[in-house]
Request: fold
Amino acid sequence: MRRPALGYVLVLLAVSLLAVNATVAKVMIESGGLSALRLSELRVTGAAVLLFAGVALTGPARLRIGWRDAGFLAVFGICGLALAQFFYFVAITHLDIGIALLISNLAPVLIALWARFVAHEPMRRRLWVGLALSLMGLTLVVELWQGVTLDGVGLAASIATALAYAVYILMADHRLRQTQDVYSLLAWGFAFAAVFWALVQPWWSFPFDLLTREASLLGRLDDFSLPVWLLAAYVIVPGAVVPFSLMVSALRHVSPTRLVILGMSELVLAGFVAYAWLGEEIGRVQIAGGLLVLAGIVLAQTARPAAR
Reply:
């Protein structure tokens, strides 16, 4: 039985945890000493262990896959999870969290364009209005008339995050048309992401001594500190395993389109957390650009047929 109200609550809980996670991750990188590469490895590996163990205990048969499935899940885990999280951490390191998330949230527009030109789905005309609004808003956010005032690495990483997230959504959608076992999908996805990072940077070279250090919480909480391992625990459990599970559960009650649109509230919540915690601010022109981008994303997503 579908219960839309419950679905909306689950999505809001998930994005609230992710909003806090963005600031926690930034603190771990800037104060805790972990690189974006190592933080990505730590997050996906921790999530893989917990999700894989959970599925194995509740129904080990659900983890059986064939060689063709293994190839698909490897691409899903590496491109859709490992690289998406790496680029995301790089983006929030070089840009204010609100701006990085804003640019990364162009993924739904990319998905709508894929549906129109690759999947050849019928689309309403509002798609083009949405795309125009998003491009106009992005122009204001990066202040293009001044030659792009944002950090180039952060801007490129944000765009790469949007591309990787679009790949993640499209591949997950394809997989879930074949099987409804979303938890085994996440478990294998994170597992392949963990293996990828283990090959790129072996675990025996991980700076485990950093986990025992105290990290300043920065910003308005600069006088306070927490051990890096405790911050890492947040990034893995409330920052990855729990929100992913909540989002997946929400799909039983709300459509993917509404979930994506409601999920954009993470941008507002993350910006508020970054302002309240780190003192990050966004200029008026960039706020106006952000509103245009959000409006464009909503139009682009609702341009798809209701049945989709």
Remarks:
- The beta strands are 214-216, 225-227.
